[in-house]
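Field guide to reading this record: the first block holds the primary sequence, the second block holds the structure written as discrete tokens, and the final block holds curator observations. Each block starts with its own label. This record concerns Molybdate/tungstate import ATP-binding protein WtpC, catalogued under organism Natronococcus jeotgali DSM 18795.

BLOCK 1 — SEQUENCE
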Amino acid sequence: PTAVELDDVAKRYAETTAVDGVSLSVREGEFFTLVGPSGCGKTTTLRLIAGFESPTEGTVRFHGEDVTGTPPEDRDVGVVFQNYALFPHMSVGENVAYGLNFADPPGGVSDDERVRELLELVDLEGMRDREPDRLSGGQRQRVAIARALAPGPDVLLLDEPMSALDARLRERLRMQVRAIQRELGITTIYVTHDQEEALAISDRVAVMRDGTPEQVAPPREIYRRP
Ligand code: ADP
Ligand code: ADP
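BLOCK 2 — STRUCTURE
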């Protein structure tokens, strides 16, 4: 079954066409990555899926339902951006609990218990009372992921979550993100400019070029441009 579908989507600004002719179908439970050089339309595509932007043309569907005009809060998505948007004056636990304000968490557990579960999921059980500025970059991104997952979204959207980290931490966070995704079985759409990362982490990859996916395939079938 299809979780997220873009049907011939375009987004034009006054001077630029950010994306054009984007048709993609992301399956339930899939780890799907948009990869390509800077300016090829990855972030715009993710923002169209999140509902932060409306397409100039085309249709966005969640589970077959047209959501093209609906705002982000009605789309059941959790979003993590490139730069950690943690609240510096709140502890790790408070940052994660903040995510619970946006929807009813699943399963009738208390907020306190839910925060504990989420911190365990991202392997930060001992960090609940820390301030974000006392964490490493990888730990901060895991807090941001826990906060995005707090309301129990149907789809997780990640925009270059590793780009601020050095190579060693990127590799480690990559494995952690994939483990979290597998544990939850959550449909995940991931944006990166790093082809090696895309091929390592994904079930399927869309290689974007000039605002359009030019290949959509599992990593082993992606050909590399010379
Ligand atoms: P990527 O994420 O692959 O780097 P983007 O989706 O951010 O690419 O951008 C695709 C193109 O659309 C770029 O040329 C960018 O400058 C342009 N663009 C993105 N957002 C806007 C905007 N709000 N206004 C004008 N142009 C934009
Ligand atoms: P991670 O991939 O979890 O970010 P690191 O390799 O950065 O892991 O850190 C390993 C351990 O060092 C962590 O478990 C953490 O407790 C500690 N640590 C890393 N950076 C900091 C920091 N800035 N302040 C306090 N402890 C840190």
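BLOCK 3 — OBSERVATIONS
Strands lie at 2-12, 17-27, 31-35, 57-62, 65-66, 77-80, 155-159, 187-192, 204-209, 212-217.
Residues 134-136, 138-139, 169, 172 surround adenosine-5'-diphosphate (ligand 2) (CB under 6 Å).
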